[in-house]
Amino acid sequence: MRSKFPFLLILISIFASCSQEHKEVVIKGKLIDPSSDTIVLLKPYQDLRFDDIIEIPIVNGSFEKRVEIEYPEGYYLMLGEAKENGGGAFMPLFLEEGTIDLIIYPESDFKKNKIQGGRLNKDLIDYTAKVEEQNFENWEEQQDWTKNYIKENTSLVSYFLLLQELTSGWEIENLEPYRQSHKNLAAAFPNHPYSEITEKLIGGFDMKAGKKYIDFSAPDIEGKMVSLSEQIEGKVALINLWATWCAPCIRKSREIIPVVKEYQKKGFTVIGVAGEFKSTENLEKFLARKEFPWLNLVELDRENNLWQKYGIPRSGGGMFLVNRDGKILLKDPTAEELKVELAKLLP
Description:
With 347 residues, the chain is of the alpha+beta class. It has helices at residues 6-21, 81-85, 119-134, 139-152, 156-166, 176-188, 193-205, 228-232, 247-264, 281-288, 306-309, 335-345; strands at 23-31, 38-42, 54-57, 62-69, 73-79, 91-95, 98-104, 114-116, 217-219, 225-227, 237-242, 269-276, 295-300, 318-322, 328-331. It contains 12 helices and 15 strands.
């Protein structure tokens, strides 16, 4: 039977869906012995230097900020100086609907920090207490225990811990436990942003010798879109992810220039991708010097998540040598290692 109030039902449906989209979090508290004028909150996969993070001013030792969120998510809380220093001590916490009261100590006493408010923060505190009870002898023991905790607890806290493991910067040899945990957690939280992010991160760790490269399209410095596969199909190629702000990336790229020049005439090709933020101004100035004798594309503000896809989310860059079949042969080779491998492939 047709409803007599179709318009009213539509309005109720719209308001119901809107109410689920954005929830308000009130973050407030005080800083003991205030030497900082701000605190910052960033997600595990964000970069302090470039990403849009939450900054909360401290006034007379106290702070309060209202934040709208779509999903509950875990953050790292740090003192404001971390932004200038590129890092520092951090405290994990969840932003979820409601009020979160914090007491923040100086970095040297961060273990004394207090969190009150939110079911997920309570679960996170309980997890931390369980970790401290274990008295692990080394990092490997703690990592194994955490993997097992994630496996046995299908919760958003476990999903946050999984994301934390995948963005830690540690090399992961056996991906299977992480892959299985991701499968279980993605089924439990299919619409949460963690599902897509962890899938990309796990895929990135597969970027090892023997695996096929991940194709993508990115613009060159003039904005023309270029397909990686069209540039390197059937060729021995080096995919060089770098950035103008990454001094080690530039140094390593300069070191391989003589090798590249020697083998370019034999069919070797290099595709560079510069991971820039905010603008391409620095890249334009750098490329104007014509130092790198190869095509360079742009990944601006992580638009394509290439650093995640290639398993280097917390790195300035990385190099991947692929053969004519598109299989990765070497990851981050030195100039000498690159030369030895090219001598075999392109005699």
